[in-house]
Write a structure and sequence with these properties.
133 residues; mainly beta; 4-stranded antiparallel sheet; 14 strands
């Protein structure tokens, strides 16, 4: 997928087809839900957007305290979302489409990953890595 003028275009290379999702999104990162039915979008416009892949519609927009940048999904279904401007990571429940809590890390958290032990690893532009349990 790629972002063009705030739209998300998803291509199927094997079938030479494409679909356009959303509009006006400031896309920073993308994840597909475990069941493959939803697309999670880290939106720099201060939200996480949830797109139903079949209908191609934004079904929820979860407001955050700053622009979303990176995301990872844990085995229990929570999204961890970095918010560089506030030095925090937001924990979001995409199933209930709601914000859960903020974790203050300081610095400028960017990319996130989940390791084999389901810990969230957060790279920080300020020069360190945080490991969240």
């Amino acid at each position: 997928g790629s972002s063009i003028n705030g739209d998300l275009m998803v291509t199927d290379v094997a079938n030479s087809t494409w679909r356009l999702f959303g509009g006006g999104l400031a896309i920073q990162d993308l994840l597909v839900s475990a069941d493959g039915k939803e697309l999670y979008v880290a939106d720099a416009n201060r939200a996480v957007d949830i797109i139903d892949i079949k209908s191609e519609k934004v079904t929820a927009s979860i407001p955050l305290n700053g622009g979303a940048f990176g995301m990872t999904l844990t085995s229990n279904g929570y999204l961890y979302v970095s918010i560089p401007d506030s030095g925090t990571v937001a924990v979001v429940d995409p199933v209930k489409a709601r914000f859960y809590r903020y974790i203050l890390l300081g610095g400028t958290p960017r990319r996130l990953a989940t390791d084999a032990l389901d810990r969230v690893i957060v790279t920080n532009e300020a020069g360190w890595v945080d490991i969240l349990h």
